[in-house]
Amino acid sequence: MNKKNSVFIATSLDGYIADKNGGIDWLHSIPNPDQDDMGYVEFNHGIDALVMGRTTFETVLRFDVEWPYDKPVYVLSNTLKEIPKSHEGKAFLVKGTLTEILNQIHEKGLYRLYIDGGTTIRNFLKEDLIDEMVITTIPILLGGGSSLFAELPNELKFELIGAQTYLNQITQNHYKRKK
């Protein structure tokens, strides 16, 4: 069983994943006429399930699209009491420490996890539970908002294992945790 917790996320040049109002429209500031998925489909093939925070879950629910995930989604929340009826069987509420939550998910045979959402990613990093990160940088300075990274109790070393440019402007770096 190959356990792996992965991040696949986009940031601004100044490291924000949402603007000052929580918006993410800036993600589409570079024209993408051919709808290049920038490696997301391939990344998605390599995961068993997603783990995301309540804020990210609620943001996705507001998108004017069909549910975008074909894998189970585990939602971390201390305030959400239940998953909306429309998403029962697709999303599951989980509570506990991150280790307890990971154990619950692993018991279902799901080992390769996509960790999504700013607070969730920061909490996983604080506990050194991220194995790899694919960070796509959009060439825009937001000047504030929700930062991808925050203070950590210990230094975490990663090594660059791949880099790619999309649309002649967007850079994507793939990092693996060095232990």
In short:
This protein has about 180 residues and is an alpha/beta fold. The chain contains four helices and ten strands.
Global geometry: globular
Q: Average the pLDDT over all residues and give the rounded result.
A: 95
Helix-and-strand structural type? alpha/beta
The biggest sheet amounts to: 8 strands, mixed
Number of domains: 1
Low-confidence stretches: none
The number of helices is 4
Assembly of the depicted chains? single chain
Question: What order do the strands of the largest sheet run in, or round the barrel if closed?
Answer: 5-4-3-6-1-7-10-9
Radius of gyration: 16 Å
**Share of residues in strands:** 25-35%
- CATH class category: Alpha Beta
Order of helices and strands: EEHEHEEHEHEEEE
Could you give the count of β-strands?
A: 10
Percent in helix: 10-25%
CATH superfamily assignment?
Dihydrofolate Reductase, subunit A
Protein model, in words:
The chain is α/β, with parallel strands linked by helices and 179 residues long. It has a single domain, classed as Dihydrofolate Reductase, subunit A. Helix content is 18%, strand content 31%. The chain is built from 4 helices and 10 strands.
